[in-house]
Amino acid sequence: MIAAWVRGRAGAGSGLLALGACALLVAGAGAVHGAMKERLARPPVDELLYYPSGLLVRQASLGYESAAADVAWLRGIQYYGEHRLTDQKYEMIGHVMSIVTDLDPRFLQPYIFGALVLAQELKRTDEGLALLEKGMRANPDSWLLAFETGFIHYVCRHDYEAASRYFARASRLPGHPEYVDRFAAFATQRSGNEGMAILLWKRVLATGNKYTQDVAARELRRLGAEEGTR
Amino acid sequence: MSRVLAIARNTVREVVRERMVLVLAIFGVALVAASQVFSPLAMGEGRKIVTDFGLAGSTVLATMLTIFLGSSLLHKELDRRTIYAVMAKPIRRADFLLGKFAGLWATTALLLAGMTGIVLAVVTISYHETPWVVLGALVLTLAELAVVTAIVIFFSAFTTPALTAFFTVATVVAGHFAEDLHYFGGQGGSAAVAGITEAIYWALPHLALFNARGLVAHGIAVEPERLLFALAYGALYATASLIAAGAIFERREFR
Q1: ipTM for the complex shown
Q2: Contact state of B240 with A25 under an 8 Å Cβ cutoff
Q3: CB distance B247–A32 less than 8 Å?
Q4: Which of A1, A60, B57, B171 is the most exposed place for a label (fewest CB within 10 A)?
Q5: Residue A132: in which H helix or E strand, if any?
Q6: What is the DSSP letter of A43?
Q7: What is the residue-averaged pLDDT of chain B?
Q8: Cβ distance of A30 and B202 shorter than 8 Å
């Protein structure tokens, strides 16, 4: 009986020891998590980017939000392609691109493509610029988003001062190609010049995807600069 | 230590017998097919999409295998009564569990590394650029798998395979909502509710710490500081789960 009591006490002792060790380790893990959250915290603006439409999709993706963004991107491209061949109504494109960018704020193409379709095809320039502004808040170092914002200001809104400001901003950001400096200089010298718009559309023709190249070719034909377009 | 390794080796052999190579082959074929189908549709974003899908697919597969293979590991030993032969030897029950953990983790880690190798090869061949940054995401996912494996071992120490799988999936899913739970718990509820949600928040695994898939898909390397923090968190959490599992398993009566 005494032996059983001693065994029982020993068992209870080791149980308490295990419990104490668990508590200590979980507390340690918590401290590491707290320190990590503090040190690697994203700017608060990222949190707001997920509201309202992307929040549920983001939560439902259970950590696979980047792959979910790809699925939404592919769906958005299909949506645009289908409607381009039929009724040319792309009412939901802004919503789809907003969800894509809520899920993956670093994914730049949805901002650029969505803004171009909204501003150029649907004539909803403010919404297009808002999408690009959202992109610039999430990716403040992206010269491409600043450049595209300048582009939309120049060719869609004809706000040459704003365009010049954004081209200049793009030319100050890291990784920008040489042509950004040229556009930044041209924009201040040649505000409202059609030649500048032609140069900008030619750049889309040279660097854009299949759909944006089609839009650029159409605009170049309209401006009487068909050379080099299909 | 040698006893733990012997059990781990046996566990690896046991798990490998479940035709793991078939999983690798299916994954490879699926990824190559996906890269061919999605690249033309992705409007120049094919590389990102193949990397994303490849990393997401490999993580889902490895996590599912960990849960479903792990949930029956201990039960099989009890069912076949092989555990009596093991326990008759001078081996502690905690070492037995540790061996099971090490064996299962090593196998799924090997599988995950194989799948990541396939992702690297497919992206390199298709886009003529090797995305070495995915290795950072691999290290983090290996740590995540260690945490999930430890959770499976913890639940399997006291319940049936079906319930082990259910509890583990529930814990992993709830871990993704931990931040929301914490937020809502602190919003105007009673002190008791706030205390309970706070306790659940800290007890749940914060698996989002190990998720760098979205980052590396954009070609951004995982910061060494983040790697260090996540590995430390994973090591502490997995060790805590295994100690708890060991303490429960010590008291379990075999019938």
Answers
A1: 0.80
A2: yes
A3: no
A4: A1
A5: helix A125-138
A6: P
A7: 86
A8: yes
Q: Give yes or no for a contact between A148 and A176, defined as CB atoms under 8 angstroms apart.
A: no
Model pLDDT for residues B61-102, shown as the tens digit of each residue:
889 889 988 888 888 888 888 887 877 787 888 888 999 999
Nearest chain B residue to A64 by CA distance is B56
Structure tokens at B40: 């033309």
Cβ neighbour number for residue A55 with a 10 Å cutoff: 14
A29 contact residues in B (CB cutoff 8 A)? 233, 236-237, 240
Let me know: does A138 contact A46? Beta carbons within 8 Å.
yes
- State which residues form the domain around B93: 2-251
- Cβ atoms A182, A164 nearer than 8 A: no
How far is residue B97 from each of residues A16, A23, B249, B254, measured CA to CA in Å?
19, 20, 8, 15
Number of domains, chain B: 1
Q: How many CB atoms lie within 10 A of CB A128?
A: 29
A56 touches chain B (CB under 8 A): no
Of B136, B45, B133, B145, whose CA–CA distance to B102 is shortest?
B145
Instruction: Indicate yes or no: CB of B244 within 8 angstroms of CB of A73.
Output: no
Q: Is A66 on the interface with B (CB under 8 A)?
A: yes
